[in-house]
Amino acid sequence: MERLLPQLALDLSEPAPGNLSGLFAADVEDLRLEIGFGGGEHLIHEARKTPSCGFFGVEPFVNGMAKAVAAIKGEELTNIRLYDGDAANLLDWLPSQSLSRVDLFYPDPWPKRRHWKRRFVNADNLARIHRALRPGGVFRFASDIPSYVDWTMIRALRHGGFAWPAETAADWREPYPGWPGTRYEAKALREGRRPAYLTFFKS
Fold first, then answer.
1. Fewer CB within 10 Å: N-end or C-end of the chain?
2. Is 86 among the annotated ligand-binding positions?
């Protein structure tokens, strides 16, 4: 954490460079963002699987960040940059239409009604995601909390700039292709909660 994280951490105090690919040691052709990567299972899996893609990972909790840094060091990955603050700040910092995909998996559901205003999915953050995505870019959301799934569906479609192409129940009940799963998801499945996997395209 003391040696490697400062090299991986994004500095938002300066404007974003014109060429975001230059932020990575690897030669990357595509850019994606994962918001709240938890223990980093999916982030590391994707970075390993797609070395030509640069990944921005956001996680405010130190334990999750430490796990990701350890995995990045152990696997010598050079296509990940990290940020430990509010993902809204990073989305504002990124240039318009700079990302091909934004992933938000198992965010805090804030289940009590009086806390719903704290949910990450809201009109302002959906506007931020939409601005950062390229035309045809993808926003993926997974959760095991039905009320949050419904909440996200309603707000994404209300935004007007996202299309949901699902045709059958399998399109949201089955995990994404190549999905590695996460520890949180495994716990949800053990406890009998069935996740939903939503995919929206920037229209």
1. N
2. yes
**Does the annotation flag 144 for ligand binding?**
yes
Consult the annotation and say whether 34 binds a ligand.
yes
Structure tokens at 155: 């707000």
The model's pTM is 0.94
The architecture that CATH gives domain 5-202 is 3-Layer(aba) Sandwich (3.40)
Q: For 83-129, what is each residue's pLDDT tens digit?
A: 999 999 999 999 999 999 999 999 988 778 788 788 999 999 999 99
Residue 27 falls in the annotated catalytic set: no
**Both tokens of residue 56?**
């921005």
Q: Are 152 and 116 in contact (CB under 8 A)?
A: no
Rounded (10°) angle between helices 41-49 and 62-75:
30
DSSP state of 15: P
Per-domain residue ranges for the chain?
Answer: 5-202
CA atoms within 13 A on the CB side of 66: 4
Which of the residues 84, 92, 103, 108 is marked catalytic? Answer: 108
Distance of CA 202 to the CA centre of its chain: 15
